[in-house]
Amino acid sequence: MTGRPRSPVVDEAIIRSTMALAQQFGYRGVSMEAIAAHSGVAKQTIYRRYQSIGEVMLAVLASFAEEQLPNPDTGSLREDLYLLLSATFAAQQGISGELNRGLAAEAVQDEAFARKLWERLISNRREVVRAMIGRARVRGEVAHPDDEFLVDLVFGPMWYRLLFGRAVLDDKYARQLAEATATVAAAPA
Amino acid sequence: MTGRPRSPVVDEAIIRSTMALAQQFGYRGVSMEAIAAHSGVAKQTIYRRYQSIGEVMLAVLASFAEEQLPNPDTGSLREDLYLLLSATFAAQQGISGELNRGLAAEAVQDEAFARKLWERLISNRREVVRAMIGRARVRGEVAHPDDEFLVDLVFGPMWYRLLFGRAVLDDKYARQLAEATATVAAAPA
Amino acid sequence: MTGRPRSPVVDEAIIRSTMALAQQFGYRGVSMEAIAAHSGVAKQTIYRRYQSIGEVMLAVLASFAEEQLPNPDTGSLREDLYLLLSATFAAQQGISGELNRGLAAEAVQDEAFARKLWERLISNRREVVRAMIGRARVRGEVAHPDDEFLVDLVFGPMWYRLLFGRAVLDDKYARQLAEATATVAAAPA
Amino acid sequence: MTGRPRSPVVDEAIIRSTMALAQQFGYRGVSMEAIAAHSGVAKQTIYRRYQSIGEVMLAVLASFAEEQLPNPDTGSLREDLYLLLSATFAAQQGISGELNRGLAAEAVQDEAFARKLWERLISNRREVVRAMIGRARVRGEVAHPDDEFLVDLVFGPMWYRLLFGRAVLDDKYARQLAEATATVAAAPA
DNA sequence: ATATAATCGAGACGGTACGTCCCGTCTTGCA
DNA sequence: TGCAAGACGGGACGTACCGTCTCGATTATAT
């Protein structure tokens, strides 16, 4: 009834190869075929776990220490947001950024995958911000009634820049964005 | 050296077919092969005009009344932004939104195309907002020193939502965003 | 050393499923995978008994009443051959024919299997004819010196027709073939 | 309206590679994938001309000087048949035999292909024999009423032996078969 | 009764080939 | 030179079977 269990060795091989390929050849160089060839894992075996390269990349991102999202509580929304954004932006450098862009591409093409991405990655990040805002609201720092909107304000510009690869996600930008969001939060609707 | 001139009939056929395909099958159904088959135009002929499907989609968007971007000047930044965003969001419904998502996917995977997209579409939109802010600054409504950041604030959330197809781009959202941006603009750095 | 004995229930399940699949989907529908799925028997379990689908098909044919080969002795080679061929042809209708064609395909592609097929199926059939000829020779009906050749004459045309599915193997053909073989047998080299 | 014509260079490359592969690795070593890899021709390009490896092999056989079937007219059916069979058997040695076996395998699996094979290869060979018998009938050498049956008698044993790879197709066998067929032809039904 | 040992179902696994899709380039003949 | 038609090499897709493997659960005999 049980059958042979899936090998964790294989799991890891897939993840490692995907990372290596993304690093070497960028998101475009990551295909099922390439992962299979690079990892020595049969295509079928990959498809048994993931339905698309996007899902593989999700797994890769998830393997990054479970997204070591900081959740600072400094007593200031501005400061909390800055610390989160600063760390988040830093994580977007290198492969992680490459993978994030890949995920965006996948999401835009596939409704079902978009939902999965949202649930497994985006919503976690949003939850952290939502919590920050909640704490700030208790402290009386927040007058704006719509938390979801504020969260959009925090992450929207990041994806915008990630999308067009136009401008950097640096520390200064993190500070500006934290500042702006805190300002909007403080202002009454 | 001169030879036969390019047929405008062909130009139009390509645009029309691309629109039709995007509408029927989503932007995934838009491939060079599909456009050629649907329009009766030879692939070569399409390649003679455009380097990628992304460029075709750009052309289609451009053909929409030359991006009927409103550039209101109501004397209030909040109001100007609202009118612009409201119109922009409305335009994202239907094919136009589909095409925009296609462009995002293309850009995210192709640095060179991302630049092209920026120059031909994004920067125009940004210029409009920049002008609004400039006028508002003259009126004394703007204290924030960084125009580019403010523009990011205007468009970032839109692409964020477009990207994940999660939430709608409705009138309420336009108002919230205009409001928030005006608030940030008014606040000193 | 002894362990659990092989289950005859499983044996039968394999045979039944193979027959069912051959009947429904033709012999192309008979694969190890399909037999396993249809019968609920594990692939490994099938491989424990048979080395190839060909062998399974052989087993199925063997299970048909141990090849109810008639071995008539009417005192006339012509009549003996006719009765044998008539029965043999009749057996080629339905699944049995399908399986025979499958065996042919397998044999043609696999030297080793061809030998096995020969030993377990073909040589038996030939032996029967060889015996008929022997008896006829005693009676003085046979002048032709080469028994093997005569046997080829009996079975060659059958496989030829089976192979190309072109013409039927009916009673008239059995009579013609018996007649012809008897004639050749009677004639001196 | 015309499009680029199919390249005869490609045609030849496919044929040559198929022959080479059949020679080196036998019929089993001939796959679409292998032909494509060996010839440097894209799979799609092969599929554009042929629907299966079987059809490729038919083309290969056809390329062998259009089956240089001898059609001797010696004034004796026995002699005519012997000369034809002798040449035919000789042609079955080497690749040609390998390909013939491959064709048989394909035919047995695919009704449609079986018809194609019959029309393009088998029926030609039969026609030659039919003509011989016709001439012999005029000369009064033939009493047997069924030409088709006689033709089966000529080719059946050859395929039988080809099928099981059991016995050789040598000159002696050609003589025996010619002899036997002539005998049957001469005998009245 | 309790090892010992093979069987069995389930299903993972590396592999090979399948047939299809689209890419971007090319070669025709006609306009 | 433009253009429709369509061939071409290339690369990836997702699927089907192959034959082997590892599980846990049985089911016998041999202690």
Give the topology:
4 copies of one chain form a homotetramer.
Chain A: H1 8-25, H2 32-39, H3 43-49, H4 53-63, H5 77-91, H6 94-109, H7 111-139, H8 147-164, H9 171-186
Helix pairs in contact in A: 1-2, 1-4, 4-6, 4-7, 5-7, 5-9, 6-7, 7-8, 8-9
Chain A binds a DNA duplex (31 and 31 nucleotides) through residues 1-7, 10, 31-34, 36, 40-45, 47-48.
Label this structure with key terms.
homotetramer, 189 residues, mainly alpha, DNA-binding
Structure characterization notes:
The structure is a homotetramer of 189-residue chains. Chain A is mainly α and 189 residues long. The longest helix of chain A is centred in the middle third of the chain and has 29 residues. At the C-D interface, α6, α7, α8 and α9 of C face α6, α7, α8 and α9 of D. The first copy, chain A, binds a DNA duplex (31 and 31 nucleotides) through α2 and α3.
